[in-house]
Amino acid sequence: MHADLQEAFRAVAAAEMDPLRRFARSLTRDSHRADDLVQGALERMYVVWARTHSVTDPGAYLRSIVVRLAISESRRPWRREYSTDILPERPYQPGAPGTQVDLTRALATLTVKQRAVVVLRYLEDRPIAEVAEVMRVGEGTVKRYCADAVAKLRRVLGDDFLDDRADEPTRRSGAPSVSSPSGGNR
């Protein structure tokens, strides 16, 4: 590879390293595995850099590689365990008094594809078209993954946590809202 292409690759890798690592950590919940995914993505991009050095958004290209690698690894049965640095003092018991909402545990219940869509759409605030491009699926598929993921998160976290209507102000007339559990005026 020519020196100018190598220098261009180094610049792209340096610029995209931190955002790519955050993205990979959001997908995997494991910093070591995330680093492996980032390294694998950079290796794959380097191999084809002579052909792909002119892509308009190398960050999106790298994210799509990370997503594909994460999906591929999730199919391997020996990757089902996740290591942690600190053991919990007491076991997690859903619904126990004093239990706090843990978004990380809730995201862990999603499939890798659903988690990727949630991270790209809601944490990185990317439009549906860009998420579809990164994941190499149709926009309708992205919308479906979003709907399924949010539905599952609602079941895991409880309706009150994700309910958009919980923050609605009460009506001035005092009449019950349509979503009132007492039946109200429909």
Structural domain count? 2
**Relative strand content:** under 5%
Uncertain ranges: 163-186
Q: Specify the structural class.
A: mainly alpha
User: Could you report the average pLDDT, rounded to the nearest whole number?
Assistant: 77
Question: Can you describe this structure in just a few lines?
Answer:
The chain is mainly alpha-helical. It contains 9 helices and no strands.
Describe the structure.
With 186 residues, the protein is mainly alpha-helical. The chain folds into two domains: 1-77, Orthogonal Bundle (Rna Polymerase Sigma Factor, Chain: A); 100-166, Winged helix-like DNA-binding domain superfamily/Winged helix DNA-binding domain (Arc Repressor Mutant, subunit A), CATH 1.10.10.10. Helix content is 61%, strand content 0%. The protein has nine helices and no strands. It has helices spanning 3-28, 31-47, 49-52, 58-74, 103-108, 112-123, 128-135, 139-157, 159-162. α2 (31-47) crosses α4 (58-74). The longest helix has 26 residues, at 3-28. Mean pLDDT is 77; it is low at 163-186.
